[in-house]
């Protein structure tokens, strides 16, 4: 044991210096790890906050789209009901007119001239099938055209509202 004591007493400065360096190294590692952990936790919290904001934006957008769709659907059904309540097509000779309920059938406008004929069909025209041509009446065509026009108007309103909800300018 004598040689261990002599070695420790003879080199006590080097041993104490090495011990201090070891302590400084361990202390530095602990401080660095704590800083990295704090930065990592802050980044995770920031990511969670961004994700929560995105989820809220998606939920708000879906809610706005559902609301707009429901409003447009209700408005379309209302207008469709009004359209179904219109008076039938009036026929007088070869002239057909649809009049609004507020108009008086006596005060119909006068048509200046009638058509002299039908325009010639192109050479590549495809003939209608016999069953389809006889199954569709003028009244059905008028109702279909009016309903299609109403659908297009509702689609345009829907697009405008969706664009406004997203913040994009409507065309």
Kindly describe this structure:
- This protein has 171 residues and is mainly alpha-helical.
- Helices cover 68% and strands 4% of the residues.
- It contains 4 helices and 2 strands.
- It has helices at residues 2-10, 12-84, 130-135, 138-166; strands at residues 90-92, 95-97.
- A two-stranded antiparallel ribbon has the order 1-2.
- It is rod-shaped.
- The mean pLDDT is 77.
* Strand composition percent: under 5%
By DSSP (H or I, 4+ residues per run), the number of helices equals 4
Strand tally: 2
Shape: rod-shaped
Comma- or semicolon-separated keywords:
two-stranded antiparallel sheet, 4% strand, mainly alpha, 4 helices, 171 residues
Task: Compose a concise summary of this entry.
The chain contains 4 helices and 2 strands, in the order ααββαα.
Would you spell out the secondary-structure blueprint of this structure?
Blueprint: H1 2-10, H2 12-84, E1 90-92, E2 95-97, H3 130-135, H4 138-166
Antiparallel strand pairs: 1-2
């Amino acid at each position: 044991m004598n040689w261990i004591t002599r070695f420790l007493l003879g080199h006590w400065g080097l041993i104490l210096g090495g011990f201090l360096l070891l302590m400084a190294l361990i202390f530095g590692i602990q401080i660095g790890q704590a800083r990295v952990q704090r930065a990592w936790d802050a980044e995770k919290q920031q990511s969670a906050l961004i994700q929560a904001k995105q989820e809220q934006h998606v939920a708000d957008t879906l809610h706005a789209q559902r609301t707009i769709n429901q409003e447009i659907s209700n408005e379309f059904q209302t207008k469709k009901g009004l359209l179904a309540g219109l008076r039938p097509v009036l026929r007088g000779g070869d002239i057909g007119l649809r009049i609004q309920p507020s108009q008086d059938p006596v005060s119909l406008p006068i048509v200046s001239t009638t058509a002299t004929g039908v325009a010639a069909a192109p050479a590549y025209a495809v003939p209608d099938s016999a069953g389809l041509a006889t199954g569709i009446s003028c009244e059905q065509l008028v109702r279909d055209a009016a309903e299609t026009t109403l659908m297009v108007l509702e689609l345009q309103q829907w697009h405008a509202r969706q664009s406004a909800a997203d913040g994009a300018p409507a065309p």
